[in-house]
Amino acid sequence: MARGAGASDPAAATAPTQRTHRAIRTPYPGGVTSAEPSALELRDMIRSREASARELVADALTRAAAHTNLGAFVSLEAELALSEADGADRRISESDPADRAALPPLLGLPTAHKDLADQLGHVTTHGSLAVPHL
């Protein structure tokens, strides 16, 4: 027996579901405050210079640091992340606006890296307390 939305109403089963965004606590640069922007929206904000990569990375670091009790990150590399963001901002500002579509699609976006693969200069635990921090 089917349960849930659309189980008894075939029309409801074929109706598109609307994606809901959870409200964010802090506004993103550019006045986006009502919903969490998608990666594509953030990319477009950076490329149009509506927001800088540094602003978005700083916001992501602040939010991650506020929730250390979750244990989501082995380490936060704030200086490195901000330096990379500055480099992305420089690269974008030096590019011709007509050529920005050719830039790497995630350039300037805050990104978290899993510690499942060794990276020079970074802690690697393979997601386990049993693995010594390399």
Give a short overview:
The protein has 134 residues and is mostly helical. The chain is built from 4 helices and no strands.
Layout of strands and helices, then pairs:
Elements: H1 10-14, H2 39-47, H3 53-65, H4 78-94
Helix pairs in contact: 3-4
Structure class: mainly alpha
Beta-strand level of the residues, as a percent range? under 5%
Residue ranges: pLDDT <50 for 5 or more in a row? 1-25
Tell me, rounded to a whole number, the average pLDDT.
Answer: 77
* 3D shape: elongated
Number of strands: 0
Major pleated sheet: none
Distance between the termini: 51 Å
Q: What's the SSE pattern?
A: HHHH
Return Rg in Å: 20 Å
Oligomeric state of the chains in view:
single chain
Fraction of residues in helix:
25-40%
Query: How many helix segments?
Result: 4
